[in-house]
Design a protein that fits this description.
The structure is a homotetramer of 227-residue chains.
Chain A lengths: L8 H14 L9 E6 L2 E4 L15 E3 L9 E3 L12 H11 L3 E5 L2 H10 L6 E6 L15 E7 L9 H10 L5 E4 L3 E6 L2 H23 L15
Parallel strand pairs in A: 7-8
Antiparallel strand pairs in A: 1-2, 1-5, 2-3, 3-4, 5-9, 6-7, 8-9
Helix pairs in contact in A: 2-4, 3-5
């Protein structure tokens, strides 16, 4: 998919990262986004402040080679390294043929994962009855939404296998929560990935806020995670 | 009413949607606004990111024909579809002769509806004693504000009848809450609709925050919904 | 005091109102600011959206005549009316020789007032031990801050006398809370008024958040309001 | 380190202060930042609104003389005074050879300090298991993060010694919390200082939000502060 409105994909990535920073998703250099275009896979570097990225900071990787990271066009600054999220982003490209993947450290994702998996181990986030569910793929109604939660690991790349297992166990879901960490969300296009990321963040926050009010959107008892 | 300050109505709609996005009302492509001008009824398309709308994305519909959606001028991109909210927006144009209607997915509206209707069924939001009530039509004092809550439905258009019934039952109120979903607010002009939407959002949040503090703005016992 | 940096006072008022809107202080056309300059007293009109004010919307009143509202220069649009806050703003000009006054509907002010005066009647907000207190006039240390709370009234202008009484009872304090309504804050200059308004809002929020956590910044027992 | 992208250090300080204002770290003229460049130490003046600083407001001090404040280049306005934080900032330059230090009044820092030191006396903030910890120096894993808390004092400069003592007791930590006040965070470069400040703020908020939910990121019992 094209980047949309007279923007190149690297420009779009920079603009989206500024927006995600304002949403509290990518502070402290964490989080990020990767988009697949006709030229290959665009991905941000590691360790840079996401709200200050410039188009010349973005890597372009070969999308014919999804088993490693073959750089087609490096950033202007040769010292930059590819984001540690690359293998996780590639899960979505390989297993789902995604057009874009994003990773958020939103506190709502972390608190929701904690609520449904207090130990930090594998689990499942569940909610139902909220209109914003309809923004998710395959969710045209108000039924139950289930999102797998996987345990965090010392190094981000070590999540690759458990994230892939969760994706296989939940083929209808375009998100994986990581306990104490955040969430990965993808879509066919960058717009669908972003829309779904906003819907999930809303659902995570709604569950946390309802819990605080002593209400109960989350049927915690019924939850039987598949991984 | 004119759009105000050297802006066309489509430009104004785009600007307001960016503002509503920052307020958390229209994330994930949800929510929106429709404004009636001399030329007809302007309405945003379905499924686009609201903070990224451009004037050429806006539909212009015939306001002499409120029983269907007669397109006077379609958006530049012929694939766009009219917002699913259209029949709900038309309730306000038909039943109240509104100049503008907006629909927000604000979490404060959803939590307030949940607080007053834990089952998600029909109910009534009640508050009193808050200065911001004075920004609502017919509320020059600090008396009781009542807002009808209707149950949500699988498809947005299916809300049309229950919303109309609530509007008839509450002729002095310019808002209808939808459980698990959000709120519709209208006014004689876009400015009045927006002002009232901001006042309602404030009241919804105040009720939720007061409940969290163990205080009690909301006299839940007295509530006898009319629908 | 001059408006500062190459801005006229009407321009400054518009800019500050946009900033206050982003802080959640002046939504729904509520709240506002009045600044005294060499030419007279500048004040916003009633009922306009505060984040959309333009310099030509601002009234200029005669500051030699503080007992009524003598318009020196009206806004370009002759239908506009002076803000209903005028008599309240004039309390600060008359009783304290203020250079600027602002009025916020911040939810933190409303919740803090509610916490210290659950009935909505007169009371006193108390806090201590917070660094941000030092931004308040006469508060070079971490001792106790006291802010009078007055009851709200059906019409804003009816607050004039009780606000004046509170100001006389608390000569060292540059703020008056109004239950269910908001807060008035003033200062020698617009910069001091704004700085104090930000410090007070922080203290109100800190008290509310601490209460939610079951901690206790607010020594409620010691409170003996003077009005 | 250079200021980065075509900006002078004074311009960068102004831009960062605007960003910190939006994050709620430097309202009411509180908080600030100091950066060391080739020319010396750049520091903001006292008492100015941080989101409105201009490059010509910034002091340049001699970095060969860290025991006093030798002004190399004063601001354009001769009435301005150096920020009261200077001796605290100098702790980081002297004891850690920092390239930048920032000071935030974030409510999350204040609430987190209160949670771990309800009396306001010395203590220790503790958290573990959160991905954002990895953005901190020396924290490549998910182990325990400890941040010293020192008691506040009537005048900011009086914190100098206890802050230095805490820094010596926690040589691997680049932050010191001040009870009822905020936090100091530093780094080798302004980018590292900012990244760490964002990570710490996230951790402080996560601890407060988890406590509100009745969860427990913070192992309060294990805490044995070193100062």
């Amino acid at each position: 998919m094209s980047a949309g409105r007279n923007e190149s994909i690297p420009e779009l990535i920079c603009e989206l990262c500024r927006q995600f920073y304002d949403l509290g998703w990518v502070s402290g250099t964490g989080g990020g986004i990767s988009i697949r275009g006709a030229e290959g896979i665009f991905i941000a570097p590691s360790g840079l402040q996401k709200e200050r990225l410039r188009p010349e900071d973005i890597f372009l990787l070969d999308h014919a080679r999804l088993d490693d990271a073959h750089v087609v066009c490096p950033p202007a600054d040769g010292r930059l390294k590819i984001s540690e999220c690359r293998p996780l982003f590639y899960n979505a490209f390989k297993l789902r043929d995604a057009g874009a993947v994003m990773h958020s450290h939103s506190l709502w994702a972390v608190l929701a994962a904690r609520l449904f998996s207090p130990s930090g181990g594998p689990g499942e986030f569940v909610c139902q009855g909220l209109e914003m569910q309809k923004g998710l793929r395959g969710q045209g109604n108000l039924g139950t939404v289930r999102v797998p939660i996987i345990a965090n690991t010392a190094r981000e790349a070590e999540l690759t296998e458990s994230m892939a297992a969760a994706m296989l166990a939940y083929p209808d879901v375009d998100a994986v929560l990581v306990a104490g960490h955040g969430v990965y969300v993808w879509g066919e296009t960058w717009a669908q990935a972003k829309t779904q990321a906003e819907c999930y963040d809303y659902l995570f926050r709604a569950a946390v806020e309802a819990e605080r009010l002593g209400l109960g959107y989350q049927p915690r008892v019924d939850s039987k995670p598949r991984v």
